[in-house]
Write a structure and sequence with these properties.
Length: 283
Amino acid sequence: MQEFLSVYKEHQEEIEQFLLQSLKNIDNITQFSKPEFQKLFKTFPATDLIYVVNKEMVQCSPNFGRKKIISEAEGRNRLYLKKRLEQKDEGYFVSKPYLSSATGEPCVTFMIEGPEKNVLIDFEVSVVLMRLGLVELHETFNKILKAFYLLVGGMLMLFALLAIGYAVFEYGYHLVHDESFSLEQIFKPIVALTLGLAIFDLSKTILEREVFFKSYSDDEKGDSRLLSKFLIAIIVALSIEALMVVFKIALNDYSQMIYALYLIIGVALIIASLAFYQKMSRK
């Protein structure tokens, strides 16, 4: 779905102008009643949701969806939408893409001002792009992909929690049952916690971007930050492991110290690679 958002951003001005001109061709839309709103779903196949607010941005109509009407939404305060909306023309406002709380799909909202009330229409981003011929979307395949990302992200999150649980259990077990408490028994849980945190962060990003779409801005910077955070967690874990190896060799056999040096050099190479990547990313 990130590809859809990239395409939308690339053609944002043309898409917004198309939707704007289409809405302008409908007379007295702010005076529409329930049957007329239902007809808009046929006129605009990309329409996801329609509702009406008063001048104080309090909803004074149900949520008119393509398949159902939600009366419980009436009376909600929609004042927060004013922060998302930018004026495109006199009486017409549009938002940037965001996740619809009503449908769970990425959408853009158009608001049409009237003398007494305003009409808000949510357009589903993927359908808009498909209708304009900017992308080819296969609904079944898209659902399969979404389910796959949900499964993988959920499994990663589960393994991250297991790693954290193992760290807590390992530390508690040795603290209670072992008479001699060594540094190794402290370092191992720390490594497990660090790896668990890195895996959890990765799974959270996968779920946000491919399933729940929490954020749509600065995608390339987000990818760079994700990789940097993941590598930093790995570097911390390997550094702790290297320190533990040094202590063990120092206590047992100095002739094996070369292997600890190899591990430290490996960590240093990862740090240098990360620094080079970040420098090139900024350029």
